[in-house]
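Sample intake — Xyloglucan endotransglucosylase/hydrolase
Collected from: Juglans regia
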Amino acid sequence: TPFLFSSKHHYFTLQKLQYFLSHINIARLALMGSTSSSSVLSILLLPLLILLLLPSMIITTSANPFHQDFEITWGDGRAKILNDGELLTLSLDKASGSGFQSKNEYLFGKIDMQLKLVPGNSAGTVTAYYLSSKGSAWDEIDFEFLGNLSGNPYILHTNVFSQGKGNREQQFYLWFDPTADFHTYSILWNPQRIIFSVDGTPIREFKNMESSSVPFPKNQPMRIYSSLWNADDWATRGGLVKTDWTQAPFTASYMNFNADACVWSSGSSSCASTSSTSSSNSWLSQELDSASQKRLQWAQKNYMIYNYCSDTKRFPQGLPPECFTS
């Protein structure tokens, strides 16, 4: 887990700090070429000066406070925005769960959110984090985290809906404990593909296969939603394991939301006037390079536990067409 240097809403990873300090050492070595007392004093004071200036020198992308981008939509006080907007928590008890949604709608984007899931015996609970439009022919891109008994792994459930049709589930175990710390879950959605990633590792790619008559979400703007709710009728072992309410309240936590995305407002996109080839919108044409494809293959080989494209019993009349073209 990367160390995070925090100055209000700015974050500096340990790797970047090490890179930065290596350049300080280079500067110090350069100064060592001089033997004057003033140069020696400069050498000694340089690290202190850098540390004093470091917060103002951080130029990495900062996360907005949650109350700027989101609104709590249900839960009667069970959802809370804390720490000056840096942290959002959802809670579930026997009476109710809770949820929130983005203030903006998006038509394509790169969405990142850090989550720390319900610890301990989370069986029966579902933490959902997804994009969705409205209406009976809605589009949707899903991350759902299915709780489990203590000591058993969470199941990460993914799905893609287009024009109200889903049934495109892929499920994974994770290669870490998602309750011990925050991890980044990302959705890249552009006109050519949807890529699901965990801590920068792609786990699923759903390509635009409209040429093979496969609907693809590309015309309906979507909001970001998240909720924590009881689904013990199906979530854990098909509903065999029920929620243990003596463990309530169950809590999931969120931080460091970032959306590099096209905001939809009044019938138009904020990206309409910019080029998709510009550096700021490079994600609009992004695809998996060879290294990313290898990481995708690694994740699917070692951690995928269900793939609708392999479920011939579920589709006795034949697998969906995208299963032959993906």
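Post-analysis note: Residues 1-35, 48-62 have pLDDT under 50 and may be disordered.
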